[in-house]
Amino acid sequence: MRKYQDIRSYDIDELRGLMTGLGEKPFKAGQLYEWLHKKQASSYEEMTNLSKALRERLQEEYPLWKMEAVQVQTSRIDGTKKFLFRLRDGYVIESVWMRYQHGNSVCISSQVGCRMGCRFCASTIGGLTRNLEPAEMLEQIYGIRRLTGERISNVVVMGTGEPLDNYENLVRFIRLVSDEKGFGLSQRSVTVSTCGIVPGIYQLAQEHFSITLAISLHAPNDESRKRLMPVANRYTIGEIMEACRVYFKETGRRISFEYSLVAGENDGMSDAKELAELLKGHNCHVNLIPVNPVRERSFVQSDKKVVEKFKNKLEKYGINVTIRREMGRDIDGACGQLRRSYLDNLK
Ligand code: SAH
């Protein structure tokens, strides 16, 4: 069986090999690549500088496929759009488009489902179904571009799935999306969020990408973290912080820490103090996110005042911190919720 189902998962060198295999000149690969990634063609027919015979052959062997949006929800509050896309094999994933002052941002999924089991997260409820291949990550961006007609200036891998649990495909996706000959997104505009798979962080450091790495910390100590995130049983916060130090040393990129505030769980002033002491001296940024209530879970959002106090406490210690603006509150905002409610309705 071949490695990828979708021709857009292959890099240009591999396409050259493919062209030679089909008895074509290798330079045709450059033209094909441009059609696929720069112009995001949705059919081989459009590729008029390739011979008809070649186009037919490609269509037979690597049928081009467009992701179909089975559902689109638009927020009346802020225009955020949530897309439920159907994959080739019928599984569904969700992606989000958000308009910010500094440009439009797309949040993509990296897996169908997730096996990390974070207690507050809707994406993990049905477990992991399968990894997404690089083209399926790209096509979420290309699809949203096609459907909205909007420019996309940032991509965050913060949708369903644990990106470092799908490492090879993630790295290939980053290379493809940031290739100047293709979609050409600057790596500085890409953020990858992880629940803290330590070996993956070390490996990623060695790729020397200029992406932003975000760590979902959500607790200031292991005991509290274990109550929210099963992955905390495998890697300690100490190990994560050491990996982050190396990541920063290797890439020069400041780490982002995500901290979802859950009322009565991790939002106390003593938590803020402990977090501040943990992060002191690290070149980092903290994103506070009021936890998004998920129907299947009983966690409650921290009070607005508590969130402010938490922020102030961190600032007193000189830590860069922002409160994440909630987007799309009215449209199944939290990770995996749209997909979840779709799957529930099928039952
Ligand atoms: N698996 C990766 C990326 C996907 S989750 C990770 O863990 O980072 C993206 C972010 O949303 C993570 O910080 C995750 O912990 C957070 N998240 C998930 N469900 C949430 C919820 N209901 N409320 C607030 N944040 C949530």
What does this structure look like?
35% of the residues lie in helices and 19% in strands. The chain contains 11 helices and 12 strands. The two termini are 33 Å apart. The site of S-adenosyl-L-homocysteine has 18 residues, from strand 8 and strand 10.
Q: Any chance you could write out the topology, listing elements then pairs?
A:
Elements: H1 12-21, H2 28-38, H3 52-61, E1 68-74, E2 81-86, E3 92-100, E4 103-107, E5 111-113, E6 128-131, H4 134-148, E7 154-157, H5 167-177, E8 190-194, H6 198-205, E9 212-216, H7 222-228, H8 237-251, E10 255-261, H9 269-279, E11 284-290, H10 304-316, E12 320-323, H11 337-346
Parallel strand pairs: 4-7, 7-8, 8-9, 9-10, 10-11, 11-12
Antiparallel strand pairs: 1-2, 2-3, 3-4, 5-6
Write a brief caption for the model.
With about 350 residues, the protein is an alpha/beta fold. It is built from eleven helices and twelve strands.
Keywords:
347 residues, binds S-adenosyl-L-homocysteine, 19% strand, alpha/beta
Largest sheet, in brief, is:
10 strands, mixed
Number of DSSP helical runs: 11
Quaternary class: single chain
Order of the strands making up the biggest sheet: 1-2-3-4-7-8-9-10-11-12
The proportion of residues forming helix, as a percent range, comes to: 25-40%
